[in-house]
Amino acid sequence: MIDFDNWSCPVPLRDTPQVVMGHGGGGAMSGELVEHLFLPAYGSAISLADSAVVPLLGGRIALSTDSYVVKPMFFPGGSIGDLAVNGTINDLAMSGAAPLYLSIAFILQEGTPLATVGKIAAAVGAAASAAGVQVVTGDTKVVDNGSGDGVYLNTAGVGVVDAGVTIGPTLAAPGDAVIISGDIGVHGVAVMSVRSGLEFETTVSSDTAPLHGLVAAMLATGADVHVLRDPTRGGVAASLNEIARAAKVGVALDETSLPIPASVADACSLLGLDPLQVANEGKLLAFVPSESAEAVLDAMRAHPYGGGARVIGRCVAEHPGMVVTRTALGGTRVVNMPIGEQLPRIC
């Protein structure tokens, strides 16, 4: 007789009464946790986006906070240290802000070698210096051996937003070009290559990078940039679905235009993953009016972190709240919001 009571499902159950890994994946479960638990607790006026723009002393500042639990802590192209700095900078940049100051807290597991902590701290300092931001405050906590996993980092960031710059997911409009700044899925595969022992003909390195300079170049064109988003947890699929739902528009992608490197495609095929749901740490998505797309692309391609920029689709009035892609065979498929997390502990 089949023992149904002992069956398990690899897909996270969305009505579970306990926290599961999927709640931290940036997909539907994360959104439901925020909407139904945190927002009611904090107050209806609060928005828990990656960053918030608030008025201060006659101007506007952007605030952001994030936590980093990536495993392993060191991976091709980076570490948890520079990832934390760049990720916080990018959350600010996606609001159109110029980042200025960071805080960083280390949560250390008892028994972690001080040499490891020092290496991560050095990566934090080097990344902040390279990006032109200052680490101005911080904290350290230690948890019992077995209560953590080496080193976790928590960050906060502050930046300033120029007058006239208004960027947000609700501003996406039919006719907008959807632009990506470069290859998709590289960071997630770089981390998984170490975690799973995968080998490729060439080393897949994380794309972690600070994107505020790229954003500044885009804004300097004078284009009315409607939306910016760094497709981290949940990848391009999660980011585009969130934007489509926020603006009540549809997004139509062209599969043949998606810049998915062969190494990423091969790894995803081997692991049964969708490249559009794999995390990125040095790429951005932009929604800009179609008449401004070429000027924005030229500015992006002239920047070191935007050389692979291209249009991958359009914002449309049809199928509001949905993302679809036209396949290479001429068919159409829906690009769903991830439920949980394909790759836990990626950032």
Automatic annotation (TrEMBL):
Positions of the PurM-like C-terminal domain: 174-319
CDD domains tied to this protein: HypE
Residue span(s) of domain PurM-like N-terminal: 50-161
One Pfam family hit: AIRS
Cleavable signal peptide: none
InterPro entries, A to Z: HypE, PurM-like_C_dom, PurM-like_C_sf, PurM-like_N, PurM-like_N_sf
Family classification: Belongs to the HypE family.
Name of the molecule in the record: Hydrogenase expression/formation protein HypE
Primary gene name: hypE
